[in-house]
Amino acid sequence: MKLWEIMGELQTIFSPKIAENWDNVGLLIGDNMKEVNKVLFCLDVTQKVVQKAIDKNVDLIISHHPLIFSGLKQITNETVHGRKILKLIENKIAVYSIHTNSDFAINGLNDFIMDKLNLDGEKIIFNEREFDDYNPIKNKMECVHSGFARIKILNEEMKLEDLLERIKESLGISYVRYVGNKDAYVRKIGLITGGGSSFMYDIADKIDVFLTGDLRYHEALDALEDGRILVDVGHFESEYLFVDMMEQEMSKFFDGEMIRHFEDEVFKLG
């Protein structure tokens, strides 16, 4: 399958038009006419990912976090970033990144993680929107459907302590951080994967508890004094299953080899 054909399908599922303005998504390295037989999915394009792609003759890496994010003025062997990019280009390995557009897309990462928690209740898409947009690769108009946070209204309220255990068990992680009383009961659960704290005030009056990653001290302190409940799942921990989601989505149209790569957590507990 040609890379441009894969890009067309990915644009249908995860339209770049719903990515945040500051984001950098899409094809970041590579020739869109390249034939793709092997794809590797990852959260971040690390040195391990690059070497694994080379060793396994991968044609395309699909990452959640963009390899090229802020402005680059040099690509040299003097930096880790430069060495990774040079290796990828030298080995003709393409890189395609799907970041906030995968978070916000319907059936994207926010939905995938919320569904993974297997909570009984109604799921609501906050700030839901639909619009028609032109897909230049497929040469046709398509309906784009997205929304920011996901809110689950449980059929029956549950104790925060039980929710914390459900999160750890469902996502396969060993711990979470939280703000609030673990004996409190919650029914309306908000979620944004990754570092979604900038959205928590938009839905604060609609939820009992907010799940995200990368919560800062003063955000947590303000929430505590305001009587709100926050759960910091972790940035990596809330998004590493992007790999599973992408394998699921790609299998619908790609019949080549798909390789999943899971990195170790960045932060360790001492």
TrEMBL record:
InterPro entries: DUF34/NIF3 (IPR002678), DUF34/NIF3_sf (IPR036069). GO terms for cellular component: cytoplasm. The keyword Iron-sulfur does not apply. Pfam families: DUF34_NIF3. Keywords: Metal-binding. GO terms for molecular function: metal ion binding. A divalent metal cation 2 binds at H64. A divalent metal cation 1 binds at H65, D103, H235, E239. Signal peptide: none annotated. Belongs to the GTP cyclohydrolase I type 2/NIF3 family. This is GTP cyclohydrolase 1 type 2 homolog. It comes from Leptotrichia trevisanii.
